[in-house]
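Incident log, structure service

09:12 report received: a user says their structure output differs between two submissions of the same chain.
09:20 pulled the input from the user's history:
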Amino acid sequence: MTDLSQLSGMPIANAPVSFLGWAFYFTIVLLVIGFFLQKALKGYNGRVFTSGPARLAEQLYLFLENMAVGAIGSHGRKYLPMLATFWMVIFVSNVVALFFPASPTTIFGFNFGLALCSIGYVQYEGIKANGLIGHVSHFAGPKLGLALLPITIMIFVIEVFSEIMKNISLSIRIFANMSGGHAAVESMNKLGEPAFLPIGEFLLPLKVLTCLVQALIFTLLTCVYLGLVTSHDHGDEAHAH
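09:34 re-ran on a clean worker, output below:
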């Protein structure tokens, strides 16, 4: 079984947790969250009421809905299940880092897998909205005519390469921020060792903010990518304005 410290590419404080172990733990956490959110909407004898968890889930839904509609257009609502999944997976994975010396998002392979899912989903929706030929042709930019065919080919190659590099940028962004947070805490704690002061724990508010921001950025970029390949076929006048 591969060690978590080997998968992350960074020395992690003796974390004897395998990648499979993190996946199992993460699945349990999501199931528990889903169970409580479902129960939050039901009272005795099926009577519906609003509780704290239900209001929190509602605010998260409204936040993601506004972000999807703003970045994609009115048809962005249909992508909410996937966007909410990305947000919850990344946020819960990041929160693990607040309580343990490592988290799933300190594993580059985990982040790369999320990026592949995101970009792959964008390509699928682009093909679904424009057809295979239409989706591929948009990489070539505007029609320049046969005289400027070399420029069209160059634009196509650059755009395809840029699309591939999106996987790397999405992965490194989360990996670097979460791994850097662990490294910063460990370094500051070493400074406080002579006085037995856990100085690194003063970074906790910043780490909480990082957990939120990284989930937000990944989801927002997915919205932007979806908007680029789908919006023009839906006549979203308000979005275009």
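09:41 both user submissions now match this output. Likely a transient worker issue. Closing.
09:42 reviewer note: The chain is about 70% helix and 0% strand. Helices lie at 4-8, 19-40, 52-72, 80-96, 108-137, 149-192, 204-230, 237-240.
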